[in-house]
Automatic annotation (TrEMBL):
The chain crosses the membrane at residues 193-211, 223-241, 248-266, 304-326, 338-361. Keywords: Membrane, Transmembrane, Transmembrane helix. Gene3D superfamilies: Alkaline Phosphatase, subunit A. This is Sulfatase. Residues 1-177 are annotated as: Disordered. The lineage of its organism: Bacteria, Bacillati, Actinomycetota, Actinomycetes, Kitasatosporales. SUPFAM superfamilies: Alkaline phosphatase-like. Residues 88-111 have a biased composition (Low complexity).
Length: 735
């Protein structure tokens, strides 16, 4: 039913523009409270628009002529007079002739307890609906009769006539609104409770987005008792904007807040695993590694469910945040005076708290966290773009690039050199009070047993470029002498001709170079870059035992396979091997245990050993259990390596072993160092004499004050010490 048909039934009251609601309000207070008009409109005048109607037009009668609530009037009454919640939003009358007969107040019960945020949009442009309705008004027939809405041929499409999409959508929306008003009229208390609850939830969601930190250890009660500067600024902006820009700004704000919340949640995961925030430029590939880790830990079904849940959560968060901001914007405009005063008070309080440094639970009350977070990410993106060019230049600069092969590593000719990485073997394993005693005992006993077997050892510290995960970045940093801290640098490095420690051995033609990499389960084209003659991955070690969570092959078996496949062969050339021990990889449960070396066979013995282990899901319910199982895994890896050297080492054996990175913060706590132990073990004392000026600690356990170098400095120091001029100044300055 058009506004013009309805206008003939409503009083011709003066209308004014309320600057607080951007809508037209009734001047007659009786109309606001729902009282019946005393007189009808002047003849020939449209009460809503003030336009003239054609002479002789009569108002339509019957059920179809019942007027719809005046959206603009409802909004203005809510904003301007703030009526009692129990009062009706506006009058509804049935036309019985040229003059409308007022109904009792109960007649409008369908709109009692109505809420302007659900019925109307305070941002609606005044008069737009009236003008559109006037254009659609059916013209009077000769004699002054106006055809009913049902009789209009354009309203109902004929058989076989395609219905206009806009008209269908309008009719569908009208049916939904009518059904909502009907339900609300029948359940006024439930309607009011639903309205209040929805508004409260919208506010809670937006406050959560503004105040939630991006690190789990900062997720405290005090974090949510702060005044967000961004919320104050956005509120003030929305209050002064015109209707249409306000709607657009509210929608954009909702999407941005949703994306910011997603970023904070991702940061929580990165800080928990990698002890750093998510890099918007360089870290996207890590999601594929995370999916692979899930697949290998919980299986394909669990992985699919986890990925679907994450996608649904992200989409739901974006949609709900946008709807929440839109709802709160309508509330602000509907209660403009209160919202303006509150915004001014909060702004003053924020400035005061900043000036005085007010804190609650050791957290500053005045917050500008989101602005700082965005600024940090902008700086991060700019730095990431520049980093590629900087690293490419560093890759092209190599002190040993022009060194003749016959002058490389001359101090190790004839030796079997084993570079061995122990997964997640970090400084915390040696110095954390919860683990220091047990791990220290393993290292002290290992030093004694190796010394008894004729081996000497010296240890120091290296600072890894990463923590928690990303072992391949640490491996390439150690081997290349470059600081490989992200995937972009790794790709640049492996696409270059940079000489690594492993390729330097290969260039001399004096060693056979091999890799024992049980953590590799698919094609590894980067292996060629490291100059290895042969690579043994998890499928080529002869292992027929079970996985231990992520770990495909237990360390003891990997070392035994190396002995069987390469080191134990007779009449062979000297070997340079890169060996990755993966049993101490997250999640550290179940952990393998040592068994008799002669009983290893094809690894089937580990089926029973795995059954004795713990369920990782149970272990990870308690951080103390996680630390305990991590310690057990480190003890197992160290014991495997020490026993291997005791069992198979000889006078030509040179072992360099180190951790690749610290474990994740669940084990180390927040803000732990990135230091890892590094040790050189040799039977020939001349080997260790060449590094006597390094100042390292005797034994397998480095002293607390032992030298600490960046991991990328090791390559040049090592190649200088064992080159043609050992002990020269080149490359020996402390970082």
């Amino acid at each position: 039913m058009s506004h013009s048909t309805r206008s003939s039934q409503l009083p011709d009251t003066p209308r004014r523009t309320d600057p607080d609601t951007d809508s037209v309000s009734a001047a007659d207070p009786d109309r606001v409270t729902g009282a019946a008009p005393e007189s009808g409109p002047e003849p020939g005048t449209n009460a809503d628009t003030g336009t003239e109607t054609e002479p002789g037009a009569k108002p339509a009668t019957g059920p179809e002529s019942e007027p719809e609530p005046d959206t603009e009037a409802d909004t203005s009454s809510e904003a301007g007079t703030d009526p009692d919640p129990g009062s009706a939003d506006g009058p509804e009358q049935e036309a019985a002739g040229p003059a409308a007969t007022p109904e009792p107040a109960q007649a409008s019960s369908a709109d009692s307890d109505s809420d302007p945020d659900l019925d109307s949009d305070p941002d609606s442009d005044s008069g737009s609906l009236t003008e559109a309705s006037a254009q659609d008004e059916p013209k009077p027939e000769p004699g002054g009769k106006v055809p009913s809405a049902q009789a209009a041929p354009d309203d109902v499409p004929g058989p076989g006539t395609p219905e206009d999409g806009t008209a269908a959508a309008r009719r569908s929306g009208g049916r939904v609104r009518t059904a909502w008003r009907t339900w609300r009229g029948a359940h006024p208390q439930a309607s009011r409770a639903l309205t209040v609850t929805t508004s409260v939830l919208a506010g809670v969601l937006v406050l959560f987005a503004l105040l939630v930190p991006n690190q789990l250890d900062r997720l405290t009660v005090g974090a949510f008792f702060r005044i967000p500067a961004e919320g104050i600024l956005i509120t003030g902006l929305l209050l002064v904007m015109p209707p249409r820009p306000r709607r657009i700004t509210a929608a954009v704000t909702g999407v941005v807040l949703g994306l910011l919340t997603v970023l904070k949640l991702i940061d929580m995961g990165f800080y928990s695993v990698l002890d750093r925030p998510f890099d918007l430029i360089l870290d996207w590939i890590l999601f594929s590694y995370a999916v692979e880790f899930l697949r290998e830990s919980v299986g394909p079904t669990g992985t699919i469910l986890a990925v679907v849940a994450v996608v649904v959560l992200v989409v739901a968060l974006l949609v709900l945040m946008t709807l929440a901001v839109a709802r709160l914007t309508r509330l602000l405009v509907s209660h403009r005076h209160v919202a303006t005063r509150t915004t001014l008070i909060l702004g003053t309080a924020w400035i005061t708290c900043v000036t005085l440094g007010v804190q609650f639970a050791d957290v500053p009350v005045a917050s500008s966290m989101n602005a700082k977070l965005v600024q940090n990410r902008v700086d991060q993106v700019q730095a990431g773009i520049k980093d590629g060019r900087v690293f490419a230049r560093q890759t092209a600069t190599d002190t040993f690039a022009d060194t003749p092969p016959d002058q490389l590593l001359t101090g190790l000719r004839g030796k079997d050199v084993l570079f061995t990485f122990i997964e997640s073997y970090g400084r915390s394993a040696i110095e954390d009070p919860a683990m220091a005693k047990e791990v220290g005992t393993v290292l002290d006993n290992g030093s004694a047993s190796l010394e008894k077997a004729g081996f000497s050892s010296r240890s120091g510290w290296l600072r890894s470029p990463i923590a928690g995960a990303g072992s391949w970045l640490a491996h390439s940093t150690f081997m290349s002498g470059l600081w490989v801290k992200n995937q972009q640098r790794y790709r640049t490095l492996t696409a270059s001709d940079r000489m690594t420690l492993t390729s330097a051995f290969g260039r001399t033609k004096a060693w056979r170079t091999v890799g024992i990499v049980p953590g590799v389960r698919r094609a590894w084209p980067e292996g060629k870059f490291f100059g290895l003659d042969h690579i043994y991955d998890s499928e080529h070690l002869g292992y027929n035992g079970p996985y231990f969570s992520w770990t495909p092959v237990p360390d003891q078996f990997s070392l035994e396979a190396f002995e069987r496949l390469e080191h134990g062969k007779k009449d062979r050339d000297p070997i340079m091997a890169e060996i990755i021990l993966a049993s101490s990889h997250n999640p550290w449960a179940p952990v393998a245990r040592m068994t008799d070396w002669d009983d290893l066979g094809d690894g089937s013995v580990f089926h029973e050993i795995k059954k004795e282990g713990k369920d990782p899901k149970e272990v990870w319910k308690n951080p103390e259990s996680v630390r305990t199982e991590y310690r057990h895994a480190i003890e197992y890896s160290l014991t495997s390596l020490v026993q291997y050297v005791e069992r198979y080492g000889d006078e030509d054996t040179v072992l360099v072993f180190l951790g690749d990175h610290q474990p994740n913060p669940t084990v180390t706590g927040s803000n732990a160092s990135r230091d890892v132990p590094v040790t050189i073990v040799a039977h020939d004392k001349k080997v260790l004499d060449k590094v006597s000026d390094w100042g390292w600690t005797d034994g397998l356990k480095p002293a607390e004050d032992a030298p600490r170098w960046r991991m990328d400095k090791f390559r040049d120091r090592f190649m200088t010490a064992y080159g043609p001029n050992p002990g020269s100044a080149a490359g020996t300055s402390a970082p």
